[in-house]
Amino acid sequence: MSETVPTRSRKATGTLKVNRVLVSAHTVAIIGQPVFAGGYLGGDYDMLWLHRWGADAVSFLAYAQILAALALWLVRGPRWLFWVSLLLAAGETAQYFAGLAGALDLHIPLGVALVTGMALTAIAVWRPQTWRSAR
To answer: From CA 52, how far away is CA 67, in angstroms rounded?
Structure first.
C-alpha cells in the first residue's frame, strides 16, 4: 500500500530550510536579549553594550526573516510566516526605539511578548504539517 505524500520542489525545500535557519537564529538572538539586560541590571555594565549589539542583530534577523518568508510564499509556501514575521519586525522596531528612548514601561513588556512570539514561531516552523501549501 502506497501512501501519497505531497512533494515540494527543490526551490520550496531550500527556501523552507533557509526560513527554519533564520527563524531559529532569530529566536536564539531574541532570547539572549533579556539575559544581557539582566546582566546589566545586576551590575555588569558591559552587558549594556551586548544588549545594544544584540538589538541590532535581532533587527537584522527580523528583516532577513521577512524577505525569506516572502520568498517562501512566492514558491507556493504558506503565507502565515510572512505576516507573522512582519508583525514581529514591527514590534521589534517599536521595541528598539522604546529602548533608545528609555521607555522601560513599554520596552520590558513588549520584550516579553516578542520573545514569546518568536518562541511560538520557531515551534511552528519546525512542525511539518504547517508547511502545506496555502493555495
So the answer is: 23
pLDDT in tens, 81-121: 999 999 999 999 999 999 999 999 999 999 999 999 999 99
Q: Is 5 helix (H, G, I), strand (E, B) or coil?
A: coil
CB 62 within 8 A of CB 88: yes
Supply 38's cell numbers: 539582566
pTM, entire model: 0.86
φ and ψ of 79, to 5 deg: -85, -25
CA 23 – CA 17 distance, rounded (Å): 10
Question: Within its chain, how far is the Cα of 7 from the centroid?
Answer: 26
Higher pLDDT, 97 or 132: 97
Distance CA 45, CA 84 (A): 34
Among residues 1, 12, 8, the alpha carbon closest in space to that of 75 is found at: 12
Backbone angles phi, psi at 102, to 5 degrees: 75, 20
Pick 100 or 13 by higher pLDDT: 100
Coil/strand/helix, residue 4: coil
